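Much of what follows relies on a compact textual record of a protein's fold. A record is reproduced here so that you can trace the correspondence yourselves:

. . .
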Amino acid sequence: MTWKQATGWTGRNDGPGPEHARWHNTIQAWTDGAEPGAVLLGFASDEGVRRNKGRVGARDGAQALRAALSSIALHEPIRLYDAGDIEVDGEDLEAGQDAFADVLARLLREGHFTVGLGGGHEITFASYAGLARALGEDSSWSLGIMNIDAHFDLREAPLPSSGTGFAQIAKAQAAAGRPFRYAAVGISEAANTKVLFDRAAELGVEVLLDTECHWGNLPAVHEFIANFAGSVDHLYLTIDLDALPANVAPGVSAPAGFGVSLEVVREIILAAARSGKLKHADIAELNPLFDIDQRTARTGARLLNDLILNRG
């Protein structure tokens, strides 16, 4: 595992002053004891994707997201930090997840709102572990995990991967005597076997299918999110870019054949951000090797920008 300082924050410069603010001339390197703000923490890993037999390349996703965020204009003052990347060395995914969790817990204890930049969706268990360490080892708190994804990621396998994260979380929560609260939004019936649907039912997973996540059904989608957020103490939102249609997000580990429209995904993210419960968010599966015209990176960056600016 390597903790590497982030680089690459460059972009268009129209002049000095807050009226010309963009991400690249606003964000600062995080330092210990910095005033609370929004902190980015990258997870440079695609070992979980490799183990899950996906197409590798997502380990460079965090840098691609930074490049796409750099020139986005900021219209209101905001405190932004970059804490760099936790890089997984070789095949040692577990050490990388543990290191990410340690740094994340430290940032959360300092009062920051944290955003993880993936990387494969193995970031999920790392994010959960960091949240659990920050919230404390007792069983007095409840955490709701909302996953925008085509896949449940509830696989049982000998080794952790990008497809096992929520199964790992379920076991960890049970061992700690806490409930497993998981809402999966954008799930594709075509991409998940009956075994996975049965497993989700056994674990009490709350599900919205991709076919239910459309503009005409938006009131029901909003109600689903509000009810879930209202039932827990804290909310963790994880965004797998493969939930979006392949023409919008071609640069992912497993492109969607159907997907949820960008407009609806944005509405889901904004509803979670404004819930008053959101503690941490991450974004996963950006694979720059397969991105076309940086479509996926630009889309992910816009979603992250809107999430951070709208967090209530």
